[in-house]
Every structure is written in C-alpha cells, then in structure tokens.
Amino acid sequence: MAKYAIGVDFGTESGRAVLVDISNGKEIATAVYLYLNGAIDERLPGTQIRLEPDWALQDPQDYIRTIQNTIPAVLQGSGIEPADVIGIGIDCTACTMLPVKADGTPLSALLEHRDNPHAWVKLWKHHAAQPEADKINETARGMGERWLDRYGGKISSEWFFAKSLQILEEAPEIYAAADRFIEAADWVVWQLTGVETRNACTAGYKAIWSKREGFPSQEYFAALHHQLATIIDDKMTRNVRPLGEKAGGLSRQAAEWTGLKPGTAVALANVDAHVAVPASTVTEPGRMVMIMGTSTCIMVLGSEEHIVPGICGCVEDGIIPGYFGYEAGQSCVGDHFAWFVENCVPESYQQEAQERKMDIHILLEEKAARLEVGESGLLALDWWNGNRSVLVDADLTGLLIGATLSTKPEEIYRALIEATAYGARIIIETFQDNGVPVHELVACGGLPEKNKLLMQIYADVIGLPIKVSASQQTSALGAAMFGAVAAGQATGGYNSIYDAAKVMAHLKDEMYIPNPDNLSVYELLFAEYVTLHDYFGQGGNSVMKRLKAIKANARK
Amino acid sequence: MAKYAIGVDFGTESGRAVLVDISNGKEIATAVYLYLNGAIDERLPGTQIRLEPDWALQDPQDYIRTIQNTIPAVLQGSGIEPADVIGIGIDCTACTMLPVKADGTPLSALLEHRDNPHAWVKLWKHHAAQPEADKINETARGMGERWLDRYGGKISSEWFFAKSLQILEEAPEIYAAADRFIEAADWVVWQLTGVETRNACTAGYKAIWSKREGFPSQEYFAALHHQLATIIDDKMTRNVRPLGEKAGGLSRQAAEWTGLKPGTAVALANVDAHVAVPASTVTEPGRMVMIMGTSTCIMVLGSEEHIVPGICGCVEDGIIPGYFGYEAGQSCVGDHFAWFVENCVPESYQQEAQERKMDIHILLEEKAARLEVGESGLLALDWWNGNRSVLVDADLTGLLIGATLSTKPEEIYRALIEATAYGARIIIETFQDNGVPVHELVACGGLPEKNKLLMQIYADVIGLPIKVSASQQTSALGAAMFGAVAAGQATGGYNSIYDAAKVMAHLKDEMYIPNPDNLSVYELLFAEYVTLHDYFGQGGNSVMKRLKAIKANARK
Which of A67, A195, B75, B417 is spaced 20 to 30 A from A17 at the CA atom? Predict the structure, then answer.
C-alpha cells in the first residue's frame, strides 16, 4: 500500500498544502488558502487601529484556517485514505513570531490584548524594530560577542530578539502578559500536536542560538534591557531540537480539523527557504541552492564552520543535520523586475504584448534575449532594496550607468537581470574565498520557471552550471519530506532526510551551461560591477546614504 | 510710415521667415517651409545611394525654396508693402557647409557630382568626420598650436576643417572640383546678394579664425594634408567681416524670388544660436543666454579674453561686435526628456494623460512639481548624449543613482531635469571661476515655453534669477534685427545691434527667482553631483568608456 506525507507551507499571503507520494515524491494534490487577513500593514483586522510605517503583522487564526481548509482539500481531491498519510511537516516564513500564553493561546486572541498591535504575529517583513536591532548590534560589538561573526557581523531588524525587544520597549504590558515568545512555525506544530517544541533552524538563524554555545549570555541580554535578562528561561526554552525529529503525534483536535488520524507523525517545524534545500536534491556540500522569487535566498552546506563576512548566518544542523548550513540573500530580485515593469515599461511595449497576447515579462525577455552580452553598454547595481549580502546595508540604493539616447527598455531590463546575477556571483565568490566550496547551482522558486533568459545569464555570469528543481513548490515538498522522516522507516517513511531526498526530490532534465563567449565578456562587465560595488558599497563614496538622509529630511 | 525687417532662420528640418516691425520688434507674420529633402541621413534624394552611419546632409535647393516660399508668404499674410521692408537678415545652423563652384553653384546641383554624397551640404550633425577631428586635435597638440585653448582644448568633428578634410581624404575629386568651401549661412547671403561674404561668427566658432590671429598657419594645414596647405587662399578668404555689416543689396533674381525690392539691405549671415543673444535683449557682459531646446547652447559676452577650460569657443566680435563671445553647450536637454517619455513612461501614466486630455509632459511636470527637493533620493549625471561642456567627452554616458522599489517615474523625470540644471551650473561656475562674470540668466528656445517646473529648478539649482525672452522665435527675430542694422538708421533701421536690441528685443514679465529653501537643499545635491561628475568624468573611474568599448565589440 502506498504511503503519503503532507507538507504545509505558510507564506506571506497564503498557506499551501501538498500531498506527496513517499515512494517517489510525486505531488498528488495541492490546495491553497488565501489568508483571511493577509499580511496586515494598514489596520488591525476589524478595527480602525492604524499601524505605523514599516509594520507587518499576521493573524495566527489564519494558520489554523489554512490547516482546516487545505488538508481536507488535498485528501478529498486525491481520494487517498487518511490512514495512508503517515507524516506531516510544516514550514513557515521566519522570523515570524508571536507572544502566547502558557497554553499556546495567542495574545491577539484575547479580548484584553487584541487591540494592541504588539499582541499579533510580527511577520518576517515587519521592519519597525530597526532601533532595537541597532542596539543589539552596538551592544554586541561593545561586549565583543563572538557570535556576531556567525551572522556576517550584523543582526537583522527582522530577527527574533529585535522583535522581542520592541515589544518589551513599546508594550511592556504585552511583554509581561506573554508566557512564551515563539516562532509561528513552532506554534503551528504546537497546535497540531499539543506539544511545544523549538526547532534548530529558526533558533539558529533567527534567535542567535548555536548547538555548541546555546543562546547569548544572560549578561548580554541584561545589557540590552534588564527585563530581557531571563527571556530564554522565562519565555523560551534551551531545549532546541535538530531538524528531522518528530515533534509529536497529531492531536485529537487537529485530527478533527484535518480528517487525518490522531497520532500521525508531525515533524519539527522548518523554515520555507531552508526546507527547499533537500527538496532541491541538495543534502551535501558544494551544491548551492538559490530560492529565487521576489528576493533570493542562497543556501549552501559546509563540513566545517567558517566565518564568511556579510552572510546572513551559519548554523550547525540548521538545514541538514550533520552540516553547517550557510545562508545568504539578495533582497531585490523578482521585485526588481516587477518594479521595472510597473514603472518603466512604455505604453508601446504593453500594446505590443497585448496584440501578441503575451505576458509583458515574456515580451521583455524575448527582446532582451536578442541582445549580445555587453551590447547595451549598461551596468547596474542591484540595490533597489538595499544589499543583504555581502554588504549587509539596507541604505544602499540602485544605480544604472551607461545610458544613452539610444537605450531601449529591454536593455535596461537585461541590465537589471545581469545586476542580480553579479550580486549572486559576489556572494558565491565570498563563500569560495572563505573556505566554503561551491561547484554547482540548483535553482528553485518562481523565477527559474518563468525566465529562461535569466537562468542563462546567471550561468554565463557566474560560470557554473545551474540545475533546476523539478518541483514548483519546493518548500511544501520539503516539508512533506520531513513529515516522511518524522514517520520513520518502520511506518513506511524514511530514517533520514538524506534517504528521503534520494527518492522524493528531483531535478528537471534541462540545465543551464555557461556559454564560454558570454562568460568572457561577463568577466569584463563583472570587474566593472565589482569596482562600483566596492566604491559605493564600502565607503569610497557614501553618496547613497547621503541621498537617503536628504530624502528623509525632505518632507519634514 | 512703419518700416519692417525680415529674418530667415534655416533650421535642421525647415526654414522660417518672420516679418518684424522695426519700431518695436513686433512679429507681424511668420511662415515656415518644411524642407523637401529634410535632413538627409539614409539615401541621397532621388537615388538608391545609401549614406554611411553618422552622415547627415542637406539639399541647398531647400534653402532657395525656403526663401521662395516663406518671404512672399509673410508679405502676403501681412499686407505690408515690399518697399517698407528695408532689411533682411538670415541665420543658419552651423557648421553646415558645402562645396561650390566659383559662381556659387553647389556641386550637388551638377550632374557630374550629384551622386557623390560629398558634393552635398554637410549638416551640423554630420558626425562622420571624427577621424579627421582626431587628426586635427592631435596635430595641433603636437605642434603646440595656441588657438586650441580658445576652443576648450578640442576641435569638434562637427566643425569646418574636419568636414573639409573628410572631403579631401574620401573624395579628392570633389575637393578638386570645389572652387569654394562655404558655410550654408554665407552661401544663402551670396544667393540673395550675388556677393560672396564670410561672417566672423561661423569663421570664429567653426573655422578656427580669430580677429587678431586669423586662421591657423599654412604649416599647420600642411601637416594635416599637403593639399590642405592652401585651403584658405584657394577655397575660402581671409576677408572675414564683423557681424552687423551689410553684405550687399538684394539681387534682381532674389527680388523676383521674394517679391521684395532689388537693393534691399541684406545683413552678413549669422548662426541660429548666436543671433538669439541680442534677440534675448543681451548685448552686454554678465547676462548669460541659454538657448534651450533638444540641446542647450550657452552664450555669454566678456570684455576680456580668458581661457575657459572645456568651452566650445571664444570669439572676438563673434556674437556682438566689441565683445568676446563665449559659447558652451549641453548636448542632451530636451532630447533627454523626449527619450524618457518615449522609453520609460508606463502605460498607466499615458492613460491618465489621455483621460485628463493632457500632454504627457504636462502630466509628468504636474507630478514632479509635487515633489519636495531631495524627496526622490535620486541623482543623475546628464550624459545620455555625452558631455559637451566642460568635459568635452562624447564617450561619457548617463547615470542614475538612488533608485529604490518605491521610485516613481516622475521622480526619475525630475532627477533628469535636475541633472541638466547641475550641468548648466558647472558651466556657469567654470566661466565665473575663469574671469567671465555671470550674474543673470536669460532663457529662450522651446523648453522655457513648455516647462515652468524646469525653469524654477534651474533657478533653484543655479541660484541666479532667470528671465525669459518674449519671442518664441528668437533666432529669426535676431536675424531680422541684424537686417534692420544692415539697413542703417538713414533708411529707417538702426546703426548698431545695441540700438536695435533696445527697441526690438523684449523679455517676458515673469521671471524665475531662486527659492532659498530649495537652493539650500540643492547645494547638498549639487555637491554630490560634482563628486560623481569628477569621478566618472575626469578619470577616477573610466567605466563609461570601457562599457562603450565593450558595446562596440559586442556586435562584431
């Protein structure tokens, strides 16, 4: 009898379940639930309470509604017996965290707190905790905290303690009322199993935890705020568990929500980007995974721990047990092209696309593909949304150079694609230069499906072959794979994520091979990119920051 | 009885006549003739003979047709007696030159030569003589020719001897057949009067002539090409006459063409940009004229000769007799905004303009005007068409810095306007720093009429008040003013261009005054512009040239 696992992927605007055949990774059924309250960035749901700029929240009930809607839907759609579903895994955006009571009740579900924005889930892209992040970084530098190196020298405002400290400073009553601060991913697992667990991935990448050193010291937290000193023991736990473990069995209540059998194995929670790595067939060092969507997440495994400047994090067992998982990122990739299409594509091109019944992106790709490498004379710095790796500087901005009166929209479009490829190459070379080998790329996410030109440009710029994940929903597939591992071989699953990946993860047949002619021209262009990257990004001319400062003052 | 003058302005695609009341400068009637053969850049008229890239020609018969069409039209339109028209002036683009026989017949009018592109008028924007210009400059530097300093250190490929040398090198039979090489402006005056004259303006700005030193030496010309050694005495003349003189009286034939009286005074020819200076009321130092259209021509008078680095030229008596006329320029102004509108304005904006029945430029101006200074965070280098002054480098290209995912089209549009204003300020400061005072600006040309935001930005960036010429056809008006001066006071005209300007030239009532708040923010932004200008324009990083070299190789 065939066995199945379900992966549920909790995104920014929706959640998605996929039912997967454990024997071959085939995706049998998919269901998507659009969150009732979406990403909340204007008003608290059902109120006139306005959020300040840079806030982004979610409603935890949307996670429950996702489970209640999507799992029954994939079961029904497939006609598969609930008893044949032996494991469930979930993944979520991170750091996406919330304050809850000791029994798991979100503070946002309590009448007394629900009108306080700090009672709600702080979504990964909640950017209002920058002052707290600045304090975290300054204090760490001042105290010589060595863990800072593991995070490229900088803790992001998106991460766990910046968000926690913001709650403490801006809403001490919420901080006091919260018995637990928890990642949404772990909270969902708690709701499924009745058991509170903490996974090594979010703890390592977002909450400054490491397998060898644990969390930062009490003294460090006290230096941030005296009330924060005991946050780990008061509101979290030091029991952080490695990925691949079973969190517990499906609770009776969750079984009712889903139609699955009580006791079905539920895996420890995972993060959407990280869980895509084994789902892209990567469980060993040297093969870098690029999850390419609005932004790009870059993951690679290493056998040793190295300090790599400007990356997002290095966490032992953080992606695949037994390896150091390195994460880096580019904050503006698909977003970049979307911005261009919305703001810079002339009417004549839109009309041509309409007449030829083409998506405008496809038309631009067609026109851009006709250009020879270097023909546009353009070069861009891909910093429209700052630079995540390796400069770690949100105040950097975009640059385009080389424009003439003959410059065409498709030339700019191609230059923006090339710029993101140069940015990726900088990251890859930084890993390589610091002891973390990279010899092949595997792409997944939305972009590789949509834009073959982009993939070929990446191969030509970077000079490495690029393979593409066969799944169009690698995160959900990866979560299902961890579900199969939580079930274990004895019940029809797998004993390790390595075994699961061998069978359940696949690549497409096509791959992108660097074209030597293009590569040689891109060498010249990349050298120019590096010069500009260093000049504008490393203090040669901080004009971008000064322009931002002038901008900030302009409306005052 | 009122007296009148006619000015005829020969442009790139058309010629225009204006009939002006000498007593007050009122423009009584205007007529435009669209050249039958336009600017010729693909095929020789009536043939399949293709032109090479960068070529641009005109048909001299189009000048005659302009005279035959427009002068009768303004007479007829106004009902004014031909006898009351006492003077004619003309102006033309320059250097726009042609080879002719001793009797003035253009070689392009002769069957034996008409199939040779070199027999035709080489239009100002004929850019195929760059190798010859390079040779002219290298040779001059090698021989230590001091006149090079008067031209900002570089002779343009657009100018007289580059074009002449190209004819000699590429079509020696045309060079040999030509009895005269002559500016189109002087040729038109010849056709009107039957007398060959040469004016100091084109000779000074385009043919390296100066009142004190004459033309370059025979040794210099011989060093360029042995056959060129005697070009001045063989095919030109050393009798170069100051502006404001009468060239001759209208010939019987030209009287027939026009309906005017034979013997009507015809002024020495002038150049379209330079003749706009007195028509903008400027006949004294300190008040700079900006002729703003697709590109911007900048003119200022000085009492002394100064070497100003990177300007186009300094010619004694070249604009107004008695002064040194300084010329500088920006090669991409109106063209810049036209490029932006054609290539970068999204469909949604075009639709909004259509719904509100507005020109798209007006809509962009409206949106851009709502922005505070510095609010966009953007800065541009206005080098989409290279830099004419003061870097004198056609290989520089455009740059935009400061873009984010929130950047809007009107922000880019405003940044491009601001960039041209910064470019103008660099030129003005270069004059001021080198002993040529500038304390007020007078704008004329198409742009000041169309874009009030642009004018205010210029005032705010430059920190000087800007007045605007009352005439929308300052070149033709200026030509008519010189016609009135050619006629002289005795016949109802004026004895000098100063006298004519006092009565016939006017400014609009409105003027643009710098806003001190804006000025203070623009000081910050201009400082950033200067840093980038020097870094990219003066060898700090020659990436623009390297990108152009890569581009040139891309299609090979």
Answer: A195
Distances (CA, A) of A554 to B422, B472, B529, B534: 19, 36, 18, 26
- Distance, CA of B53 to CA of A434 (rounded, Å): 50
pLDDT tens digits for range B148-203: 999 989 999 999 999 999 999 999 999 999 999 999 999 999 999 999 999 999 99
The band of B461, judged by pLDDT with boundaries at 50, 70 and 90, is very high
pLDDT attached to residue B305: 94
- What is the distance in angstroms between the Cα of A405 and the nearest Cα belonging to chain B? 6
Contact status of B407 with chain A (Cβ, < 8 Å): yes
Residues in A closer than 8 angstroms to B346, CB to CB, are 342-347, 350
Residue in B373, B402, B553 nearest the CB of A554: B373
Q: Does the pLDDT at position A556 exceed 80? A: no
Q: Is the pLDDT of residue A392 over 90?
A: no
HSE of B553 in the Cβ direction (CA atoms, 13 Å)?
Answer: 14
The HSE-up count of residue A259 (CA atoms within 13 Å, CB side) is: 17
Distance, in angstroms, between B25 CA and closest chain A CA? 38
* CB–CB contacts below 8 A, A to B: 169
Distance CA A451, CA A449 (A): 6
CA-nearest residue to B341 within chain A is A346
Q: Which chain B residues contact residue A375 at CB under 8 A?
A: 551, 554-555
CA distance B169 to chain A (A): 30
CB–CB of A401 and B342 under 8 A? no
Quick: pLDDT tens for B424-459.
999 999 999 999 999 999 999 999 989 999 999 999
Asked if B183 contacts B94 with a C-beta cutoff of 8 angstroms, the reply is: yes
In DSSP terms, A511 is beta-bridged to A467
Q: B78: which 2 tokens?
A: 């106004």
- Long-range contacts at A258-263 (CB < 8 A, ≥ 24 apart): A258/A67, A258/A68, A258/A71, A258/A72, A258/A75, A259/A71, A259/A72, A259/A75, A259/A82, A260/A6, A260/A71, A260/A75, A260/A82, A260/A85, A260/A88, A261/A82, A261/A83, A261/A85
Chosen from A331, A344, A536 to mutate, greatest number of chain B CBs within 10 A: A344
Q: Provide the whole-model pTM.
A: 0.93
- Condensed to tens digits (0 to 9), the pLDDT of residues B481-533 reads 999 999 999 999 999 999 999 999 999 999 999 999 999 999 999 999 999 99
**Burial category of B499 from C-beta neighbours within 10 Å (exposed 0-12, middle 13-18, buried 19 and up):** middle
Alpha helices in A41-129 (DSSP H): 60-78
State the average pLDDT over residues B385-407: 94
Tell which A residues from 493 to 552 touch B, by Cβ distance under 8 Å: 521, 524-525, 528, 531-532, 535-536, 541, 543-544, 546-548, 550-551
A-facing residues of B in 329-348 (CB < 8 A) are 332, 335-336, 339, 342-347
What is the per-residue burial (b if ≥16 Cβ within 10 Å, else e) of B72-99? bbbbeebebeeebbbbbbbbbbbbbbbb
